[in-house]
Design a protein that fits this description.
Structural class: alpha/beta
Distance between the termini: 63 Å
Number of strands: 8
Largest sheet: 4 strands, mixed
Shape: globular
Mean pLDDT: 85
Radius of gyration: 30 Å
Low-confidence stretches: 264-278
Strand content: 5-15%
Strand order of the largest sheet: 3-2-1-4
């Protein structure tokens, strides 16, 4: 294997084929990206000789390059005109590494962005996938008729069209073959996950695969084809798995494309992104955040980090007994949004715990998404991320994919109705739990911990409701300290109700916070009636005032959502 030398490779390729263009692009395949060579030839792929194809293959093998594709110039321009996602994403002028001097590349200029292009691309993809779905409907019909043979034929066509669609939009070309085995081999080089469709090393799966390919011919032209219910069930499971994989991969491709068009070129040119709110971290905060990021980088594969908010607690301590002295200590809590390249190797709770144990005067509360989750949520419309990525302060990134987002949140009547529905459901649950405690209080004297645990659930429900009203955010971690801290970013209520400077309030908060732990792991607890009653009153007061703030916010955002609808 030779060390890759781009110009040397290009020279050898051009000597073998009549090449007009060569692109090198970072293309997305399943969960991985790979550098892909896209060769644009004067001849159609089908008209290339076996010798030419073998020569090109040997050149790339010599340099250990496995991701390359060959298309004709006519096919390239045809697919660009049809807005094929693969070519629009990767065949860009900036990705050209070789160009025949006589070729006019003006047709490759990026089309001006407008939201309709995404809708059109979605329509193109769905049109192909719907062809496959029609055969799935046929399979379901024949299953009800207990016609196993026709069911197997319909499933073959369903899987074939799914694989063809995947090839067309993820690799730029569908494999012209009715063999599922050949389709799998063609795509597997670029999409390793497809090795899990029919495992090559499992004899029984290869037998079923052969049976499935035979169904395409024999069900129509022979009376000797038979298939057992057990083999058909294996095929059904494989078809379900393939459907999920194909939709997942195409969703990622579409999300990547959408994200490119949501970025601002002006911002990309800046080393440090400027945020519209004009806020910056102080030198002290910047030093603390850098320390936190260094710790997080040892635990997870960080992609981007945003600071959503900071909260400072300052305590002054004076001593008059010995030498007069005064000590001021500052404890800072940070709310961070972190985007990781992969799923967390531990739970979010564990990540926060191990990070906070290494900090002295700081504490972090983390909201986490993977890179692919952000792509998917942005593609589907996520006001929480739209707001955070546009307004929060970026403090770390490996590339500028997310710090240069320029996209407005969606205001619409149905969005407000969804927010209101979520709040009403959460508040109704919290109210029911509190009413149950009020009605049955005399009966619960024997087990006060149960009362605290139920109150904990009620406060949790209200926090979840507030987070959706103010942020449209659904957390994946539900401890009371975490939820209350997130609520501090838009409300002073948590700090007011559970004031740490008040021994009574802080003690009540500690009881409420620890209730789930004691409920699960302790069989004996000694709680005084007055302690529980004090915590109960604070919890009810928090719920009452939280509902007032939530209803005020609902009224405020209703004007935004309904005003935008009128326009």
């Amino acid at each position: 294997m030779k060390t890759p030398n781009q110009q040397e490779i290009i020279t050898q390729i051009v000597a073998e084929l009549e090449i007009l263009l060569i692109f090198i692009s970072e293309a997305q395949y399943s969960d991985q990206k790979a550098s892909t060579w896209i060769l644009i030839s004067e001849k159609k792929h089908a008209k290339l000789t076996e010798q030419q194809l073998r020569s090109i293959k040997s050149i790339f093998q010599e340099y250990d390059i496995s991701h390359y594709l060959i298309f004709s110039s006519d096919y390239l321009y045809e697919q660009l005109a049809e807005e094929n996602l693969f070519f629009i994403q990767y065949c860009l002028p900036q990705n050209i590494v070789y160009q025949n001097q006589a070729l006019d590349v003006s047709k490759l200029n990026n089309p001006p962005f407008h939201i309709n292009i995404i809708d059109r691309i979605k329509t193109n993809i769905n049109k192909e996938l719907n062809k496959a779905t029609s055969f799935l409907d046929g399979a379901n019909f024949y299953i009800e008729q207990n016609n196993l043979e026709q069911t197997s034929f319909m499933l073959h066509q369903y899987m074939e069209l799914l694989l063809r669609s995947l090839g067309l939009f993820a690799l730029g070309r569908e494999k012209v073959s009715h063999s599922i085995k050949e389709q799998q081999i063609f795509l597997h080089r670029f999409i390793p996950d497809l090795g899990g469709l029919f495992h090559e090393e499992i004899e029984n799966e290869q037998r079923v695969l052969k049976l499935l390919d035979e169904a395409y011919i024999k069900v129509r032209y022979s009376r000797n084809f038979e298939i057992t219910e057990g083999d058909l069930n294996i095929i059904i499971d494989k078809a379900d798995w393939l459907d999920s994989l194909v939709h997942s991969i195409l969703d990622k491709h579409l999300s990547n494309f959408r994200l490119k068009y949501l970025t601002s070129p002006a911002k990309k040119e800046k080393n440090t992104p400027a945020k519209s709110n004009g806020m910056n971290l102080s030198e002290e905060d910047d030093h603390r955040i850098r320390n936190i990021i260094n710790i997080l980088k040892t635990k997870v594969a960080l992609h981007t980090v945003f600071v959503i908010g900071t909260h400072k607690d300052a305590h002054t301590q004076k001593n008059y007994f010995k030498a007069p002295s005064e000590n001021i200590s500052v404890f800072i809590s940070y709310t961070l949004l972190i985007i990781t390249e992969k799923k967390l190797p531990m739970s979010l709770s564990e990540l926060m715990d191990v990070t906070n144990k290494l900090l002295e005067k700081e504490k972090v509360f983390i909201i986490q998404y993977t890179e692919n989750m952000v792509f998917k949520l942005l593609d589907r419309g996520c006001n929480f991320l739209d707001n955070i990525l546009n307004k929060a302060l970026p403090v770390y990134h490996i590339n500028e994919s997310f710090i240069s987002i320029s996209h407005k949140p969606s205001y619409h009547e149905r969005v407000w109705k969804r927010i209101n529905t979520v709040w009403q459901a959460r508040y109704k649950r919290a109210s029911f739990l509190c009413e149950a405690l009020e009605d049955q209080y005399q009966e619960m004297l024997e087990e006060p911990l149960t009362k605290l645990h139920i109150l904990n659930c009620a406060v949790e429900q209200v926090c979840l409701g507030m987070l959706y009203v103010f942020w449209e955010f659904k957390p994946s971690h539900y401890s009371i300290p975490y939820l209350l801290h997130l609520c501090k970013n838009f409300s002073g209520l948590p700090e007011y109700i559970f004031d740490k400077s008040s021994h009574r309030k802080h003690h009540s908060y500690d009881l409420l916070r620890a209730a789930p732990y004691h409920m699960r792991f302790k069989t004996k607890t000694q709680l005084h009636k007055k302690e529980v009653e004090s915590a109960y009153r604070l919890g009810v007061e928090f719920i009452r005032r939280a509902s007032e703030e939530a209803f005020q916010e609902l009224d405020r955002i209703k004007k935004l959502h309904f005003a935008d609808q009128k326009q």
